[in-house]
Amino acid sequence: MCTAEPRGAPLGWRLAPLLLVGCGSQAAAPEAPPSEVAVRSEVSAYLPLPHDFVYSYDTYSEGQLVGALWMHVSHPRPGRVDLKMGSRIVHLSIEPEGVRDLRRGWVLKAPLRAGARFQGASGEVTITRVDVAVETAAGSFKGCLETEENTAKGEALSRVTTLFCPEVGIVRLDIVATTERELVEERAVLKSYAKRVDINALDE
Q1: pTM of the model
Q2: Which residues are CB-contacts of 149 (< 8 A; sequence separation ≥ 6)?
Q3: Residue segments in the chain with a per-residue pLDDT below the cut of 50
Q4: CB 3.0–4.6 Å: which of 42, 149, 154, 200 could bond 160 by disulfide?
């Protein structure tokens, strides 16, 4: 069942430029045959974006489980990846330097070393750690890369911390947003990731 997003900083909206998860269905319409991504880079190890995979995330607000988010990955042509959230689609470009949202900036960009910086969806992103371990419902992961994006708009401040794990992609995303009146903390944690199952094909 699709659940509403929590109050405060809209988690689904913040996730969209990173992994486009949201209220949707894993039983999506059949995709075109997969095409190989033309360009591979060191970034692809931490953000592989496999064709026709579905990623599901548990979402939390103020430490409480509030719902679930999904994303579906497809490769419409070499060098391009589409991430689908319901009727919305984010278009990514796979480039020698990394993965770039065609509208909002880099999702992840080389060099992948602590202290490296690049322009992200809403502000400057810094790679803060390069060997993080994390446990989730989807498994235990090591050697993960941590990035932090800080944004200031007037009195509103936000910090987005993302964990990219080898051969998986985004495993956890934390958002801390402050305004003049409140502090909002939200999180998305990977629950599962697998190739999409076409229920109709099971009956053939």
Answers
A1: 0.80
A2: 120, 121, 122, 123, 124, 125, 126, 159, 160, 161, 162
A3: 1-10, 12-14, 16-17, 19-39
A4: 149
